[in-house]
Inverse folding.
């Protein structure tokens, strides 16, 4: 409502209708809350229709089996993580004893289940069936019949809880974990022991972490992110030589790890995050970076044209995330190579961004507004915002702050940068968001729109003022960095000053 008031005023149908709809929505929400049952009936199965399905998708699950997806209630394992591992190559996931659906305690005539050994342990019993046990056995509710919500607890047993079992009590909220923290905890719990027990000769050579595509790799994930490509998982990176020796076998062992952890999982992967595009598992280092950038390693300084073909969003995906362990240093070296953009390339991109800021924001935006072409004016604002956001990252240097990610996380990244100490142009982010907020009124408000018939003019003048303010800040920063000694605020005329600092006078780097 505050945004509508700022852009259009209150004396209009837009404000009144929105206010009415908002009040109605609040009333409906209150009525729905009042109709919700306060407690489950003892012995009532959790999966009892639409209401149970809806509750199971919230942050406080009532079923013992939390889902890795906001809307998923299926017990089917995630694609690529349920196939039995080849006998003798991968250790099967430990099976979990499923409670009696009736809720009764086990009788004393049955011997307790033996405690399972971790993958590769000498005490692990051999698989006499020729196949690995089904992973569904590790999931609560795998037995016939639903699991009661309020069944009586079983008597304590001396049998240790199998590794990978879900320790979360019914009704306990999931821990507030980001994807990176979940991946690190999963690595510490299962990844490290797997390497130490089954691949001790390689434990000083395998890197682990989480890097690549996905909101969790940027640290921007939240509850809404859990409905796709989210769950327990991490990456293992090997040299080409090591991957040829153990890669497929290690991948099979990775897939045999429990697919639920700390109330999360199984991991539900979208189609583009499977196969060659999978985001977790075992990779050769060169293959991993090639799948993201098209290059097995970063181009050299003598190939600036190849650097210019790599857009910033691609470089952001190749250099984000966290490395949990890298004793050999090979993965970190390759990743750092993509962070170290040659300075000639960076300055060439700075010059290009200055040109777009001048063309879209300083020149074409006021002309399109004067013509009354709201769509073209809106496109001009978008080009100005994109170029300015990119410039902020380039002037702060990618090796320090990383690269600007793709549009979905552009402002999340810009806000985070702006909160850091010692960063340049930290006031630009808020000004850009204000310009975007005013753009609807400025571009499509019309002559008689808004309170008192103010129309689009006030919003348009404010946006033009924001553009000029940002350009003055940019000139001051260029002067402070020694990239220009000119005070000219029309940024097109700053480009020759910046390009004077490019050492390699190659055609692809010089625009003027």
């Amino acid at each position: 409502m505050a945004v509508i008031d700022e852009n259009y005023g209150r004396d209009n149908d837009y404000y009144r209708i929105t206010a009415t709809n908002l009040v109605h929505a609040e009333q409906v929400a209150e009525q729905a809350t009042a109709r919700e049952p306060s407690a489950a009936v003892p012995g009532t199965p959790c999966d009892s229709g639409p209401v149970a399905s809806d509750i199971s998708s919230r942050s406080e699950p009532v079923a013992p089996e939390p889902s890795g997806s906001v809307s998923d209630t299926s017990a089917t394992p995630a694609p690529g993580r349920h196939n039995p591992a080849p006998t003798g190559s991968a250790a099967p996931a430990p099976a979990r004893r499923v409670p009696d659906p009736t809720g009764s305690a086990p009788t004393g005539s049955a011997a307790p289940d033996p405690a399972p050994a971790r993958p590769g342990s000498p005490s692990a019993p051999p698989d006499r069936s020729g196949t690995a046990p089904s992973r569904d056995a590790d999931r609560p509710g795998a037995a016939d019949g639903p699991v009661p919500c309020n069944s009586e607890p079983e008597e304590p047993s001396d049998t240790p809880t199998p590794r990978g079992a879900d320790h979360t009590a019914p009704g306990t909220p999931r821990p507030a974990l980001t994807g990176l923290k979940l991946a690190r905890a999963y690595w510490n719990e299962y990844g490290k022991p797997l390497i130490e027990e089954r691949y001790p000769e390689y434990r000083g050579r395998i890197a682990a972490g989480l890097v690549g595509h996905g909101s969790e790799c940027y640290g921007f994930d939240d509850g809404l992110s859990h409905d796709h490509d989210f769950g327990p998982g991490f990456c293992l990176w090997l040299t080409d030589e090591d991957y040829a020796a153990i890669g497929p076998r290690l991948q099979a062992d990775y897939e045999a790890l429990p697919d639920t952890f700390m109330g999360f999982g199984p991991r539900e992967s979208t189609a583009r995050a499977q196969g060659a595009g999978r985001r977790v598992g075992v990779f050769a280092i060169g293959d991993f970076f090639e799948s993201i950038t098209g290059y097995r390693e970063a181009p050299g300084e003598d190939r600036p044209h190849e650097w210019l073909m790599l857009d910033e969003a691609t470089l952001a995906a190749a250099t984000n995330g966290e490395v949990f362990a890298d004793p050999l240093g090979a993965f970190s070296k390759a990743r750092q190579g993509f962070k170290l953009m040659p300075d000639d390339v960076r300055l060439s991109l700075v010059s290009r961004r200055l040109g777009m800021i001048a063309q879209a924001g300083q020149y074409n935006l006021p002309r399109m507004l004067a013509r009354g072409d709201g769509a073209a004016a809106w496109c001009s604002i978008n080009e100005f915002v994109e170029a300015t956001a990119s410039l902020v990252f380039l002037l702060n240097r990618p090796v320090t702050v990383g690269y600007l990610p793709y549009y979905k996380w552009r402002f999340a990244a810009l806000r985070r940068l702006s909160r850091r100490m010692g960063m340049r142009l930290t006031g630009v982010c808020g000004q850009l968001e204000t310009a975007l907020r005013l753009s609807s009124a400025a571009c499509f408000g019309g002559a008689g729109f808004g309170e008192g018939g103010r129309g689009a003019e006030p919003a348009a003048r404010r946006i033009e003022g924001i553009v000029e303010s940002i350009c003055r800040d940019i000139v001051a920063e260029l002067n402070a960095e020694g990239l220009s000694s000119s005070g000219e605020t029309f940024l097109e005329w700053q480009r020759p000053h910046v390009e004077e600092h490019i050492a390699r006078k190659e055609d692809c780097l010089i625009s003027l």
Remarks:
- Strands lie at 207-210, 235-238, 281-284, 322-325.
